[in-house]
Amino acid sequence: MELNIDFFRINHRKISPQAGKILIAQPGLMDQYFKRSIIILVEHNEKGTVGFVLNRMLDFNLTELLPDFPELNAQISIGGPVSPNSIHFIHTLGDLIPDTVQVSDGLYWSGSLDAVKSLIISGKITNKHIRFFVGYSGWSKGQLDRELTENSWVVSELDVVKIMTGKDDMWVKTVSQLGPKYKSWTIYPENPSLN
Fold first, then answer.
1. CA-CA distance, 8 to 57, in Å (whole number)?
2. What is the predicted pLDDT for the residue at 32?
3. N or C: which end of the chain has fewer CB within 10 A?
4. From CA 74, how far away is CA 155, in angstroms rounded?
5. pLDDT score at 10
6. Residue 67 has pLDDT above 50, yes or no
7. What is the spatial distance between Cα 162 and Cα 71, in angstroms, rounded to a whole number?
8. Considering only CA atoms, which of 52, 139, 169 is closest in space to residue 103?
9. Taking Cα atoms as reference points, which of 82, 81, 77, 59 lies closest to residue 132?
10. Helices (H), the chain
11. What is the pTM of this model?
12. What is the spatial distance between Cα 5 and Cα 10, in angstroms, rounded to a whole number?
């Protein structure tokens, strides 16, 4: 007799994807960009979805990526596989940065890079206020909904401080906060073929 048991399939509390929510990759998602990733969604509408991977840190200085920028010890992450030659940022400074888009309470996306430079020079921006991404994660119309139906992701919430300070170990910590039924996710081997 063959058992049909999927220990990693969990009936999640259904939260709709929207700007300001996070996506948590389920442990079997093996894509190089999205394996054990946490993604902040900055846009979700009828045209598609945009977000940034929070826990794929790069060991670069901002001035290595943007040579004309003032020195700032900001976090830089791989945002995703789309437009890998582009730089994006999220921040907590609101309208201090013109042309910004509010993502959720206290979290903003994009804005004037010239204003960011001026605010860094004047000492009004620290690494706690802003984080940068190389590339982004994008889904076309209906694509994310299909992936949610396939249980590739869990939609959840995360406070702005954790969004702004998340590191490489963020996946395990965030999954653990979902509750005890997710314990099996945290012990799932990163490479099941080596088990």
1. 27
2. 87
3. N
4. 27
5. 57
6. yes
7. 23
8. 52
9. 77
10. 62-65, 113-121, 143-149, 160-165, 170-176, 183-187
11. 0.90
12. 11
